[in-house]
Amino acid sequence: MIKRIVAYADGDDLAASRDFYVDVLGLQVAMEDPILGLTSPTNPTAQILIPPRGMENPPPRFGIDVGDPDAVDAAHAEAVRRGLRVVYPLTDEWWGVRRFFVEDPSGTVVNVLAHLS
């Protein structure tokens, strides 16, 4: 079950990005470490993530929260079975997500994730 799809923005100046998305567009800060996470105050599944430049290599274009760590494992197994290029290995991150990055058939890098709790 897909829980949400999250857009990524570039993180050249996180403070300026935070001010723009909060003060101009009305989003709320949901997370500031290790990346800036912003959510809609009326729809918490509408999110933007802004990692600092160079944090993720290659940087994903967007993330798909599949809802459950077992679903991350299943998506990873299917991607491998299909011979897709996994560009960031299956990892439990210290900030509480299980994820991997995979290239779609067009070369777009997708972060496939779920929260561990």
Automatic annotation (TrEMBL):
The keyword Transport does not apply. PROSITE patterns: VOC. It comes from the Bacteria. InterPro entries: Glyas_Bleomycin-R_OHBP_Dase, Glyas_Fos-R_dOase_dom, VOC_core. It holds the Pfam family Glyoxalase. GO terms for molecular function: lyase activity. Residues 1-115 form the VOC domain. Keywords: Lyase. Transmembrane segments: none annotated. This is Putative enzyme related to lactoylglutathione lyase.
